[in-house]
Amino acid sequence: MNGKRIKQLLLGGLWLLGATCATQARAVGEALSLTVSPALANGVTTAVVKIRNPADVQAFSLELSFASGRTLALPANAAPPLPPTPWFTRGGYFPATPFGPLVPAADLNRVDDSGARTRVYLDGFKPRAGSGAVGGVTFKVAAGAVAADSQVIALSGKYWSRAQQREVTFLPVTAEFTVGAAQDPDGDGVAGSADNCPAIKNPDQTDSDGDGLGDRCDGPPPVDTDNDGIPDATDVDDDNDGVLDTTDNCPLVANPDQADTDHDRIGNACDNEDFCWQCLPSRGGWRAILR
Structure pTM? Predict the structure, then answer.
């Protein structure tokens, strides 16, 4: 890391361009924090950077780096100048007007002894009080990445110590990003993020009412009396007997002949008791034909 860059951050003579510290910088126990979550191929992930001793930091200069051309990459247009910087989310600890770069800077594919690396520089003067949250750097995950592919991200830097009044080197940290597998909680072959019923198997993804929720998760399945795949609510012939429901005297039981012995406009197939008014006996009272 360029030691002069961090010396340029501090005003009022605390640091001078090209000055040499009285005490040689050394790795100390004050630590950086770097976390990164798994993400799917062709997705995005964010490396979250924090300083764990925020009260002692008067200025900082951090470098986040990783090998180029592998699983992770910054956007193609990430190189400066890019105000604003869409791939960086400013944390509460990051100064609103950092000295040095007006926005975090990136150096894409710079070649050194370790090969081609992408570097992101996060410099800040007089950071805000708080948790030490510097911010998050968003990376793109290669479209061709496969589950369990991994890549190491390194974070290093220096800061000016309020207590010691000298430049101190942070203890470097690394985090390993891992490409996640598409999750399929119900095992129906449809990834959970795309499954319209992620907790219950429904490989056909049927959504009869078009509300975005699969039928298996959308309450009781719609009634389909004749099992023709058309719910009764939209079926014009629920029993599929060739007679439309609007004129069918027994719309839920197939009765193509529409027989109605007692002429009560309820077809025999649906009528529990048919009284034959035409069949009165010549002697003895009523006769009912029970069906």
Answer: 0.55
